[in-house]
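The records we work with from here on pair a chain with its fold. These numbers are not coordinates but entries in a learned vocabulary of local backbone shapes. To see the layout at work, look at the sequence and tokens printed below.

. . .
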Amino acid sequence: MPIIDVHAHVGHWPFHMDSRDAAFNVRLMDRYGIDLQIASAAEAVVYDAVTGNAALREVLAVHPRLLGYAVVNPNRIEESAKDLRRCLDTGRFVGAKIHTHYPGRHIGTRQMAEAFDLVDEAGVPLLLHTWGPEVALLPELLESRPRLRIIMGHAGGDAWREAAHAAAACDRLYLEHCRTVTDAGRIAYAREAGVPVERLLFGTDSTLIDPCVALGVVRDAGFGREELERVLWRNAAELFALGEISPTRPFP
């Protein structure tokens, strides 16, 4: 069964986790049978979006199993607008990434609204770092942005219940549950709240977190075979218009 990882990073982080270059991403992908990985540049997330995105463009040119998110900085929206188009024009970037913590912008701020407008206009999926109860604002924010589809990275973090109800209220919100703390029952809660399996995605936070953590969460969720196929790759393939994916190896 193919596997598409929709939440990964390339490059070094200022943490104790083992984060290296893109070759390390690929080694972890080979270890766990991950066929495609959609990644943002660590440098773009934590320091300089334009410079980090440029470095990732070079990486993607030589690693065909990696695709890119162009990081959008809500504090520099005009600069990010030009850079997003530059990245998407390569054909190797398939979405945008916005972090809320590093730019210091809450989901409900004016700057974040402008960033959402930018991604809505571009018509690509957005991986949004979500952590906290402000995820409840997302359904209303999407009402006026008809093309915007948001992957809630970390599924709200410690606010995973609020994230589940937000996703149940809006069919353009997707849940992706990677997190260092594997709270029991997060996926079951989301499904009971009304989130269909078609809007659950697989992400790892690699290489900050070893992919085995996310794979364990999926294996413990009790998915049937067809549901597992949806979560591990088909939902992502449809969302990012990737077509059919040939598996590296069977899912264990």
